[in-house]
Structure formats: structure tokens, C-alpha cells
Design brief:
about 90 residues, two-stranded antiparallel ribbon, flat, 3-stranded mixed beta sheet, 4 helices, single chain, about 40% helix, alpha+beta
């Protein structure tokens, strides 16, 4: 939980909710309040996309779920994560 990802020179890239480092798999649970439009300010969205692209460049797969997914469909969330972990 709260796994820190750094780039090739040790600069912080992200802090993920859950990580499987050996498989380079991150799991994020996005809350509506944190990701809500901030009075029309697109910067949070832009930062999220830059972060996602930086993680992909470093070879990480990121699975994103909402808190609603985690709370109301935990078996579905677990199934997606397990399938991702079982990839060759």
C-alpha cells in the first residue's frame, strides 16, 4: 500500500495505492472528491495524465478503479487484478 515509484535517476514519479512490484503492476482507487473538477481547473487532470504516461514509460501497468467499484464490486476488482497478475 502507498508504494513509491521513482524514475531511472531516483526522482519520485508516483505513490500508488497498491503495487505488485515484481509484475510492475499498480492498482489505484480513485475517489470522486479528489478527482472532481476543481472549479474548471484542468491541472489535476493534466497531472494525472502526465503521471500515468510516466509510469507507462517506466514499464508499469496501472489498473484504475473507483472507490465505488472497490466497495460495491470487490469480487470484480479482485478478478481484474488477478487476471493482470497472471499474464506472462
Amino acid at each position: 500500500m502507498q508504494f513509491a515509484v521513482v524514475d531511472e535517476v531516483g526522482r519520485p514519479v508516483a505513490r500508488a495505492d497498491l503495487a505488485y512490484p515484481e509484475q510492475r503492476l499498480l492498482v489505484e482507487a480513485d475517489g470522486a472528491v479528489f478527482h472532481r473538477d476543481h472549479a474548471g481547473d484542468p491541472q489535476p487532470l493534466y497531472r494525472d495524465r502526465e503521471r500515468q504516461n510516466a509510469l507507462a514509460r517506466l514499464g508499469w501497468t496501472v489498473l484504475r478503479f473507483t472507490w465505488s467499484d472497490v466497495l460495491t464490486r470487490p469480487d470484480d476488482v479482485a478478478d481484474v487484478v488477478c487476471r493482470a497478475l497472471s499474464r506472462p
